Amino acid sequence: MYKKEIEILKKKNRFRKRQIYDNLIDFASNDYLGLARNSEILDKTYNALKGEEYGAKASQLVNGYTEYHQMLEEYLCEINDYKAGIVVGSGFLANMSIFESLARKGDLVILDEEYHASGIVGTKLSQAEIRYFKHNDLEDLVYKLADSIHFNRVFVAVEGVYSMRGDLVKEEILQYLSAKKKVITVIDEAHSVGVVGDKLMGVVDLYKIPTVNTIKIGTLGKALGSYGAYILASKEIISFLENRAKGIIYSTALSNFDTMYAYFALKYIHNNLDELQKEIKKRKELIKSDSLIFVKECEDDIMLKSIELQQKGFLVGAIRPPTVKKSLFRITARISEDIEKLKEVIEWIKTD
Q1: Looking at the structure, do residues 12 and 158 belong to the same domain, yes or no?
Q2: Burial class (CB in 10 A: 0-12, 13-18, 19+), 248
Q3: Burial of 39 by CB count in 10 Å (0-12 exposed, 13-18 middle, 19+ buried)?
Q4: Residue from 96, 117, 73 nearest 250 by CA
Q5: Is residue 281 part of a domain?
Q6: Contact criterion met (CB below 8 Å) for 92 and 120
Q7: Whole-number pLDDT of residue 304
Q8: According to the model, what pLDDT value does residue 227 have?
Q9: Which range marks the domain in which residue 313 is found?
Q10: What does the DSSP 8-state code read for residue 13?
Q11: Cα–chain-centroid distance for residue 79?
């Protein structure tokens, strides 16, 4: 039924297939802090849930919501200075839920052109007018907002760290938006939590952005080493999402295990902040980036180059169109991997 389409993908070198990688030094994973295999966090999670249910139960509005979800939400609000929060199944679901439910007919949504695909898909489910502004370009954003007075509600969506570039959203953009009372700013912090900020809580933390009129999306995966995501906002917005967001209402609540693993990962970050900051700083200086992402375009057959790297013992991200316009190597400078090995793979990619 789809044979021709698959053959076309192969001819265009866009065919993808899942693989299992063993015994490679991992610079492809988004497990920035190495917490996905932290035995201290695992032990605390196990002990906290001993005798309780580990797995997922049901929708949050049935009986899937537990004291563990509440604990995590309250702690997230405390350390991020937000009034309310909700834990959801994934970052993709979080973006889908926000745009599908909050943006209505008569509203305006403006996204950075590099915003994650989940947000783009979510906006297509709304009846709002959708616009894009040039990546990290305040002047173009101001232009796209020029007639915003004619809309009921206005949303602007940016990412803390753009995952396919490694750059941070510009502070001037967030400061400008925070001064616009009518604008609700959506900040996807999936790749910035655990990586930037005095408390490693992302760009809102880094730039000291007021949390009023902002919606923060964070992941429980990536730097936290677990799975799932969360949304932080005003009590009114969280209540509305709880009542109208299909991705929340009709999906199974996150498991108790994933929830508590993320909770103890956050505690671990807080308790080891100075040491983590030092290791992060070393790698940022090495890759000359404000994040832990290093990107280098590849003009040759990137899959062949990727195999060469694997033969040398390294696993890195080989990203191809249509995910990006041009093929590129994407390296995550994970602090759990040897910095000397990181130097080696960076030099290989730079000089090849």
Answers
A1: no
A2: buried
A3: exposed
A4: 96
A5: no
A6: no
A7: 85
A8: 97
A9: 3-32+292-351
A10: T
A11: 18
* pTM reported for the whole predicted model: 0.94
The structure tokens listed for 159 are: 């990412």
Query: By the 8 A CB rule, do 29 and 220 touch?
Result: no
pLDDT of residue 308: 87
Are the C-beta atoms of residues 102 and 241 closer than 8 Å to each other?
Answer: yes
Residue listed under structure tokens 């936290």: 224
Facing residues of 214 across strands? 185
* Amino acid identity, position 286: L
DSSP notation for 39-87: HHHHHHHHHHHTTS--S--SBIIIII--HHHHHHHHHHHHHHT-SEEEE
> For the chain, which residues score pLDDT lower than 50?
none
Q: Cα separation of 29 and 17, whole Å?
A: 17
CATH number at residue 230: 3.40.640.10
- Enter the tokens of residue 340: 């000397």
Element spanning 236, H or E: helix 235-244
* Rama region for 261: left / alpha / beta (φ>0; ψ in -120 to 50; rest): alpha
Residue 297 Cα to chain centre, angstroms: 22
Stated as kind and residue range, the H or E segment containing 232 is strand 229-233
Q: What is the pLDDT of residue 352?
A: 60
Say if residue 127 is exposed, middle or buried (CB neighbours under 10 Å; 0-12, 13-18, 19+). exposed
Three-state secondary structure call for residue 313: coil
